[in-house]
Sequence to fold (401 residues):
Amino acid sequence: MNLTTLPDADVKDKTVLLRVDYNGAAADDTRIRLTLPTLHYLLDRNCRIIIVSHNGRPDGRVIPSLSLKPIAKRLSKLLRHPVQTIAHCQGTPVTQAVAVLKPGHILMLENIRFCAGETDNDPALAKFLASLADIIVNDAFSASHRAHASVSGVAKYSPMIAGLYLEKEVKMLSHLLKNPKTPFVVIIGGAKVSDKVAVVEHLGKIADVVLVGGGVANNFLKADGKPVFNSYLEDVIVDKTKRHLDFVKLAHQLLASNHGKIVYPIDVIAATNFKSSSTTVINLINPLSFTQLNPKLMYLDIGPNTIKLYREIILQAETIFWNGPMGVFEKKPFETGTLKIASAIAKSPALSVLGGGDTITAIQKFGFADRYDYVSAAGGAALEFLAGKSLPGLTPMLVKS
Fold:
């Protein structure tokens, strides 16, 4: 995928509308740090910078706890450069603040989702935002799967180019789709089943093997006729277009079409609830008697035999992509699967690419955060990209051949 990038454009002395994703950055500044190279690049070229971001899901309402002011303070400290803020995201106050913005100065607008038209991709809001600047820089890869006013709508009214972080993210993920060294091992876990099935389907065509765990694995187990008792099967689905889907049925279709490429757990750690310290190892290949087991049991981690199998496969890989923990790693009785998979990937000489908020939290918990080649903070956008979908925030920046 070829995008129009910062080196392709003349941004010197320009007013730039910079779309970033600082969602949740008051608690974890990872996403701020990712955008610092782009900000330095623009400051070095004497740009006037207007930062646009969202935080949370205020649904067009002003919610003080979701204000970007604390995030602006953190950015200013990390950048070692003043960041002005304004308590508005559209209207005359914004226009006036931009009019007096000096070269080399930064203005952060208030949470763009305080504006009702953002998530509706309102053309009026998009046109207003575009009118503020000479050029738009999109450095918010993690929001680029949203057809929102500040993500894709603005590109109808002003040229958009890729920021340095977004460019890096796209290059790394594109490599997984086009040029992975083999064996290519994909590991998919976590609870957001609705986001993962399409990734399993698309990467299953490219990868040599797909290892599944967590809630995703439960769908494949049930699809293959294994009892899952009271185990988690489906997340709360935000995307309305996915609410009618039967994920167990989809898992069954994937098992049938991938001819053994998808590997699910052969044993699991189960308990009646997340807080229980009393656990049961269930052999899913040769169970003594499922009828004697408590119907309230939930599968909360992969078992010791699965861990051994998955680690053997991982250690033979040349390329690895991992998104989603193997179980409820936040609780000690159910952390082993995720810990052992994380350590195997860290030990492997393969190119390792990780993604997803829970995956990042897990590797930080286990002290492996700096042991991988690339850690993506993009979440849902990365999954949609790897599922082969077109992202609304990327399409305007594609270089036409």
